[in-house]
Amino acid sequence: MTERLVVVGGDAAGMSAASQARRLLGRDDLAITAFERGEHTSYSACGIPYFVGGDVRPLERLVVRTPAEFRDLYDIDVRTRHEVVEIDTRTARVRVRDLDAGSEKWQAYSHLVVATGATPKRPQWPGIDADGVFGVQTLGDGVALDALLTEGACRSAVVVGGGYIGLEMAEALVRRGVPRVTLVERDEEPMPTLDPDMGALVRTALEDVGVAVRTSTIVDAIETDSTGRVRAVAAGQDSIAADVVVLGLGVRPASALAEAAGIEVGPTGGIRTDRRMRTSAEGVWAAGDCVEVFHRVSRGPAAVALGTHANKQGRVVGINVGGGYATFPGVVGTAISKICEHEVSRTGLTVAEAGAAGFETVAVVVESTTRAGYFPGSEPMRIKLVAERGSGRLLGAQIVGRAGSAKRIDALAVALWNGMSVGEIEGLDLSYAPPFAPVWDPVLIAALEAHGAVSAPGR
């Protein structure tokens, strides 16, 4: 009898799982149905700020594979505008709502993949649902904001939240010619995934292109006009004029559907899985932004919404459903972004995160350049390493600099993954030529400084 794989969510994790399972099993062995409540499958949500900013056109370039391509190439029955509203693990079936027809039906499964992604954080402020308030989660969100900007009626914009998406959207709005762009962040500096001293460099990068940055600022409400359209953001005693408000407050795992079915959810709000991505329910797998992952440095649970992890986890699920064996080994929290003319990257733990995980730390910051100082095009960069006091084990790293800086984080992520000390990193055989690095690469300089700091008497 043919088994049936049902996938809930048609983006990175879900379609990776479906595609990998199909590569291993033919139609006679496995029927695959994927339900997606939106109109698109397998698209890059990370590319939406670059679409809005005008760097990526047309929109279709963000779509990796369409529903039709999945049907034709992989024999996967993709049903867009269909939302799974209930999972019944006892009878191994899901209740599916056709969003256009308004009808519902039950679909049985042999294997179920929950790949519901993440939900944008949306505070219950007065006016939060006003016209002109945008999240940036789906391609539809990007299209709607782009259409408004194309009309040319936007003279002022407020971005609430200074994380990756918020910062990228602030830059995109400047690039689209919005005269007044304000970023509002409740923490001490933008990019709270960095330590504040590194986040201060990001603030400078934004201010250099004309973004007004307001930190340590809490939003109270969205003010509207008589037609119900946004006109300002209320923050304390201030009212910041806004024709458009973009929410960049981060996301949380979209685990409610699974939790309602009795599937175990962890302390981060993500669905708990084992290393093979199996949930607590028989025949149910989970992958992507909706799951909780193991952080290899803190040794605790984490919720990390990144397409890289989603694709890997989906592939793991697909291999296991297809009869193979695969595991997901965890994360170290590596991320990278471009903010105006600056590149920003991080991996592992910040000083605060390391302290919360119980580590005693030593941190060093070094200034260097992306190339040999005498070589044309050499740009400044700052690198920060966080190491464990005593052992010298690397716990985290952050880089902010100009072009050619940020991808150095990958060398540090590999070192972190393998539990290396800063003394061991200091001796790495990294590449050198004047067009690419100083004779002492910034990674090695930082490791040398960190090694000296953890070895110093009294440290």
The CATH superfamily name of the largest domain is FAD/NAD(P)-binding domain
The fold-level CATH name of the largest domain is FAD/NAD(P)-binding domain
Please write the CATH class name of the largest domain: Alpha Beta
Give the N-terminus to C-terminus distance in angstroms. 66 Å
SSE-based structural type: alpha/beta
Mean pLDDT: 94
Q: What features would you highlight for this structure?
A:
459 residues; 25 strands; FAD/NAD(P)-binding domain; globular; five-stranded parallel β-sheet; alpha/beta
Brief write-up:
The protein is of the alpha/beta class and 459 residues long. The chain is built from 12 helices and 25 strands. It folds into 3 domains: 3-119 and 251-321, FAD/NAD(P)-binding domain (3-Layer(bba) Sandwich); 133-247, FAD/NAD(P)-binding domain (3-Layer(bba) Sandwich); 335-455, 3-Layer(bba) Sandwich (FAD/NAD(P)-binding domain).
